[in-house]
Sequence to fold (266 residues):
Amino acid sequence: MKKKLSELSARYRWMKHIPNLLTLCNSLCGFAAILWTLEVFNFGGSAPLTVFAVSSFIILFAMIFDMADGFVARILDAASLTGIQMDSLSDMVTFGVAPATVVAIMTYCIRGELTAWQLLGIYLLCCVYIGGAALRLAKYNVHAMVEHKSSNKFAGLPSPGAAAAICCLVLFAWQYEWNLSQLAGVLPIFAALLGLLMVSDIPYLHIGKWLVRPGRRKYLLILVVIVALALFKTLAALLLIVAYILSGPLMIFSGRDDTDHEEKKA
Fold:
């Protein structure tokens, strides 16, 4: 099947642009999330957390394009250095700038409750997140052009995983009607920690490669995850992403980090 698709893409050159089109959709989702976040100023005091929840959903939706572009590029044999660069630039917008914008604007909405120094501190924490995402993606680009290693693990938290953690926390707070001040007090610190994890050498499982490996237990686990998401929605999503974040340090402490890392951003 893969061979036939590769031959088809060689015959019809326009098909080789499909992966880049999917990557572009990823970046457009990030831009849409940023624009929608700024719409909170038009809502005034009317449920600002709902605006941030929609932005978070858009960022999570963009992950479909982020996963699809690499998969399509492989089956069409359309991988290129341009695609690598474009993918990282798109991820910087969607999984770097967009989540940080959500966090920063959220705290701006409660600026009357904060001092100037508190606001400055929150913005600096957002900068740590953006800086972590930028370094992670730049590191991946250099590595991808110099070395070609394959592994089932990442070195450092993937940028989509960091963005998912922020978005799932926002959606959880929205579903359970948290006070915006409470969320804005926790989220910047959480974002900064994620930024540090992105530039760390802590190993994280490559979920994409794990999914394509055969195994009955894996399919049972996927079924359990789907059922949990259907029943508990944002609570299940938040617990799953937190479990993934903690899996890296636990892998080190348990001594199971015995394979080479793949310097990649996911």
Q: What stands out?
A: The chain has one domain: 2-253. Residues 116-146 form the longest helix (31 residues). Residues 49 and 174 are 6 Å apart (CA to CA).
